[in-house]
Amino acid sequence: MSTIKRIFLSLFVIAAACDLSATVKAKHVILIGLDGWGSYSFEKANMPNVKKLAEEGAYTLKKRSVLPSSSAVNWASMFMGAGPELHGYTEWGSKTPELPSRVTGKNNIFPTIFQLLREKEPHAEIGCIYDWEGIKYLVDTLSLHYHEQSPDYKVVPDGLCNMAVRYITEKKPVLAAIIFDEPDHIGHQEGHDTPGYYTTLTRLDGYIGKIIEAVKNAGMYDETIFIITADHGGINKGHGGKTMLEMETPFIVSGKNIKKGVIFDESMMQFDVASTIACIFDLPQPQVWIGRPMTQIFK
Fold it and tell me: Which residues lie below 8 Å from residue 150, measured CB to CB, with a gap of 6+?
């Protein structure tokens, strides 16, 4: 073989490898968030559906929240691929940035994972369903096809679950975020690491099982990646501080093209969730994002 042919063959192989590494890893992502679910509870909790996803996928219990370790600032960081210093949402109940966002997109909000996917796939079904009203201020609703708050879970405990099952079955979303608020509520009311807290986690695990079953019934299961995670943990009846009980949250990922039986120890921050989803869909990150995709989880 001539030298020129060898060079062209080498370039072809390199190009093919680069193209392969850039392919979309799954057609669907179902992100399930449990507000106030601390890593400290993972081993003790009776959550068979969540633990099965962990066993059949990859996970860490060392993902750290941004500070303060409270809700809006961390959900924003999870969706926006950056910390509060850049996206500007700095408090528990932020509805608008207290600091000017470093950049804003066409919808006048800091770039979110929902906006990135919408720009690449204008017709993709993208949705967010949530218990806590504060979520809607953080997800760029103009990039969503569907967003809705559930009924009061103290009156209709399975309301969010039923909405999620119906949405998945009818619309087969490319990306759906389903955010449960109850662990945080029971943590404030009865306390974290209490019998009531663990009872709530077990019930929510049952809802997660129904969501997984809905994905199967929709014919999506073999092309779906599930992510189960949280915004922060808690201590006693509160959160927002600097203890590891408040700062460390689980990150569980399972499904299409995810390695099985992996517990990874690399550093992970809240804003790395958005970057990992962007990697799944082969979405280029905005320059302002500081998140890193957890590439070690992929086959």
Answer: 129, 130, 131, 156, 159, 160, 163
Residue 172, Ramachandran bin (φ over 0: left; ψ between -120 and 50: alpha; else beta): left
Q: Which amino acid is at 219?
A: G
- Those residues whose C-beta lies under 8 Å from the C-beta of residue 140, and which sit 6 or more positions away, are 79, 105, 107, 109, 112, 114, 115
Please spell the DSSP secondary structure of 93-120, one letter per residue: T-SS-SSPPS---TTSS---HHHHHHHH
| Angstrom distance (rounded) from CA 56 to CA 71 | 29
In angstroms, the CA 50 to CA 127 distance is: 22
Q: Which helix (H) or strand (E) holds 255?
A: strand 248-255
Q: Which residues pair with 34 in a beta bridge?
A: 180
pLDDT digits (tens, 9 = 90+) for 46-61: 999 999 999 999 999 9
259-269 residue pLDDT tens: 999 999 999 99
SS3 annotation, 212-241: HHHHHHCCCHHHEEEEEECCCCCECCECCC
Question: Average pLDDT of 243-255?
Answer: 98
Tokens of 14: 């390199």
